[in-house]
Amino acid sequence: MRQIQTIEPGATLLAVENVSLRFGGVKAITDVSFDIRKGEVRAIIGPNGAGKTSMLNVINGFYHPQDGRITYRGATRTKMRPHVAASQGIARTFQNVALFKGMTTLDNIMIGRTLKMRRSFFWQLWRHGPAMAEEIEHRKFVEEIIDFLEIEHIRKVPVGKLPYGLQKRVELGRALAMEPELLLLDEPMAGMNLEEKEDMCRFILDVKEQYGTTIALIEHDMGVVMDLSDRVVVLEYGRKIADGTPDEVKADQKVIDAYLGVAH
Amino acid sequence: MDILFNVFVDPFLQMRAAPDLLVQTLWEGLVSGVLYALIALGFVLIFKASGVFNFAQGIMVVFAALTLVGFHEKGVPAWLAVALTLGVMALLAMAVERVVLRPLVNQPDIILFMATFGLTYVLIGLGEFIFGGEPKQMITEELFIPRGAIDVAVLGGRVTFQKIDIAAALIASLMIAGLALFFQYTRIGRALRAVADSHKAALSVGISLNQIWVIVWFAAGIVALITGIMWGARSDVSFALQVIALKALPVLILGGFTSIPGAIVGGLIIGLGEKLGEFYWGPLVGGGIENWVAYVIALAFLMVRPQGLFGDKIIERI
Ligand SMILES: Nc1ncnc2c1ncn2[C@@H]1O[C@H](COP(=O)(O)OP(=O)(O)OP(=O)(O)O)[C@@H](O)[C@H]1O
Ligand SMILES: [Mg+2]
Prior knowledge:
The complex is a heterodimer of chains A (264) and B (318). Chain A is of the alpha/beta class and 264 residues long.
């Protein structure tokens, strides 16, 4: 693996350069470039079908762009397998929640520790000694996350039985269990009521403050975007139409047109 | 009325009249059941990890057994032959992952299913090319598989336990327990269950699908070898052996394609049902029902519990 650098806060953690992604005739992303700086909340917004989710999928290796390059922590790549992205510190949540439905909240978040578990699996056949000690350590970490997200009451509930808002929270917990450097959140507040949204906003800000995690956030709720993000990139029909601080973007005529659905 | 009596009363009277025969039948059913459970487990592991019904499971049994015998015929000592055969099964698992699964990832399940057809014919061709088409003798003494039988006085009669059956039941049970524990309690097991639930979520937390695939296909290869040894020792090792994989189908209908306990309990139910059915109800239709009675049991069961033994209740959203 190429060398991975440690990135100082404020420096570029991830750079997307001239990325294009097509599905047959559908151009999901066309020649998009932007960067994400260490420690910031970077929002990606745009109307439905703009290519936001596709962009996250490119970043964590689910999709491989036909053109362009991604530079993460100083290493440039065109293709990457998702589990390698995960091992380099990229975690994510999904627009439509992808949890392990048959497992409890606790187990779901515990799975987020997979890459942190170093003991070989033969050790675990003997569930004592070093493997046991390690398991306990991971459990402690997971319990902290559960406290942090205020989901103690559903620790032992199979997540398939939980309401949508809580599932989204468990999914965030699983991503946090990976101790990511870069956290990709795809509409973390979709389908939530006001109170749940406020909670989620608080969690996101706390994650940024407490762990210094860099966050890329897709969100449709403009209020939330303006409150949370440091910088915003705006996509429309797969192209970047604006990039800047929330205030700059809000005042941009192209953005206003895109959101009002003005004909091109 | 006669027919009702023959179906619903007479068999039970027979069981009461000769309890030793009942014990004998139950024992034979148990032995078959444990072996069916083992085969079904091979299917379940692969289905859980990759959503594929592995049509090649049967030929893997033959291929593993032939490889073992083939090494031994070349003068390799038995224990080394077993080790080498395991090595071959590991290579096969890696090859399947690389050549079949990886290129076909994200294709519809039916495509993968068809690919296992292809794999079946590749293995048949390869097996015939390397080992020839004639049936071979399974090595038994060399593997410490006992011959002969033990007679035990039971309930006023005698019950015969074939030593090879005892060995088969023991080894298969150990194997099943080992696999079940492995996939329940280890990190790999947790990863497998994660993959079974959601591929993309598993990938996003850093689980490598490819690694899991190799592991489950290798596990299925081990299952195939054990099945091949046990079944091969009772008859001989030939390509006809692959039909025993079909015995796992009713077990899977009963236990569900994704449930490890389902495979175990389902295997036992089918094994017992088959032998009891054959012995007590078979004569009513002139015998020979062993080949299809398992399907009847499985289908009858499905009418009562469409979700299978351990599945969650299916509630259709309308
Ligand atoms: N796997 C795929 N196969 C084919 N087309 C795809 C695929 N994924 C995305 N697309 C297409 O790419 C375009 C961008 O989709 P994408 O999901 O990235 O949009 P989005 O900005 O996330 O939209 P939304 O706000 O609705 O979630 C759409 O036209 C979509 O149909
Ligand atoms: Mg989307």
